[in-house]
Amino acid sequence: AQAGPGGPICFFDPDLARLAQERHQLETDLRHAIRDGQFVPFFQPLVDLQRGALVGAEVLIRWQHPQRGLVPPNAFIPLAEETGLINDMGRWILESAGRQLAAWQHAGRDLYLSVNVSAHQIPKGLTPDALHELAQRLGFAPASLALEITESILISDVDGAQAWLDAVRARGFRVFLDDFGTGYSSLSYLKRFTVDRLKIDQGFIRDLATNAGDRALVEAVTAIADSFGMQVVAEGVEDAEHVRRLRAMGCHYGQGYFFSPPVPLDAFSEVGRRIPEL
Ligand code: C2E
Ligand code: CA
Ligand code: CA
Ligand code: CA
């Protein structure tokens, strides 16, 4: 630092400089990753709790970094959103999910996929027409693809979000509301925005056995979903006790480590045979 007459006029913080440098490096790497196709879709099974059957999967992205190995999404999605790279990345993810769906449908496998969509992709980057074009070009049924959105999308631009939702669903795609209960969830949103499923955040599932409040909440959300013609997915299903309680509460679907963590495609193909008898 250099001191002027009135104190330091220039302040150099080595930690800040290092952070800025790391961020810059990450951004550069991310551009290369998109160009070179370093992303890998992982698949986490979605299980029909009432029937005890594998019905689909959520696509969760991983970055196979040439030096750092497998990087989890929380380490790069925020930067991708800030820099706008999420649009290219999101297109790649949808494209690979679509190709997988087309392959399954070609082979007569009746599974669907849900893909996480960032608020930054909506409504402009990811238009209903672009989705429609994708399904046509790759040859998969629109109903086999679900877009997972969060409440933040609904809040940031209410009219735009509603128009987007309606158009996407009119095209035959499904929409799931992710992390339900963690945002500014208000029951009025459910009345206003029609979605196909509510994914109850894992924070409400974790202590289901000991926390009566969480139980009441999951039960109430399931009842509300039923009355609106929606279904409920419990996230973070980690043990047999969770499954038992969720089934008893009439919860429709479950996803979590109890069934399987997110896995690469070849491992996912084995999962169907390993879903425990419910
Ligand atoms: P999310 O959409 O809420 O995904 C669920 C997260 O919970 C995943 O973390 C998953 O691995 C983890 N999980 C699944 N089952 C269990 C369980 O039983 N217990 C616990 N404790 N955790 C479980 P992951 O894969 O690290 O993804 C983190 C977040 O990154 C996702 O949260 C999602 O918001 C975002 N993300 C992942 N893939 C994509 C993508 O392709 N596009 C966008 N925009 N975001 C993505
Ligand atoms: Ca999700
Ligand atoms: Ca979630
Ligand atoms: Ca989340």
UniProtKB/TrEMBL annotation:
Domain EAL span(s) in chain numbering: 23-276
Superkingdom of source:
Bacteria
What is this protein called in UniProt? cyclic-guanylate-specific phosphodiesterase
Organism (species):
Thiohalocapsa marina
Please give the first and last residues shown and the length of the full protein. Answer: 537 to 814 of 831
